[in-house]
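Sequence and fold:
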Amino acid sequence: MMNKASRQLSAGWLIAVLLITTACSNQQRNGMADGTNAEDAELIDSNQIDTIVVKFTDQPIIRVVAGNSIGDFLIDQEVEESNLFNRLGEVDSADAAMCKSWSIWYLEDKNTPAHPVAEFDVYSACDAEIDMKKSIQVMRLNEVDFEMDNGISFGDDLSIIKESYPDAVELSFTDALSDTIVRVYDDVEAGIAFELRDDEVRAVIVHVPNQGIENMYLPFYKQ
């Protein structure tokens, strides 16, 4: 039979084994939890929604279609039906005349010559086809990532624009904010224009096909 000392020793070993087992189990669970939390955090980071993009579309990037659209906003769409103001909020600047207007939204807080910010500009005019209600005629997206079906995107080189739009007319304007020269390549027939600074695409302009921007009042350029 086991004496008292032996029984105490056995009990001690049993307690020690139980403590070690419990500690290992806790450590494993904590490790799994830490791993899960790390994976969750990574997933959240990877699924961060761009606060600018969601104003335009539910897609991962803003799609631009020549002569037709920027994101979900469409050329020739009635302004009141476009949800422009519901999605973008109140305009930061407006320039209106009889039956025509420019609406300008700054999509970031800071806008200086040294730090041009994301900007969206919309020109609308009274449209005889919709009882003289205003429809969208021109849209300009500045300093925001975009992508076209032909692969052109923000930051592309001038050579790509010339290759993709060989009939584009080269125009020259002065930026209203920085006084720098802005080169614009407008494919009038297609209804698409690109602003280039240092030979890189910094803005895209979508307009009604066959109605170029050359003789239009554009408030973001000096006239």
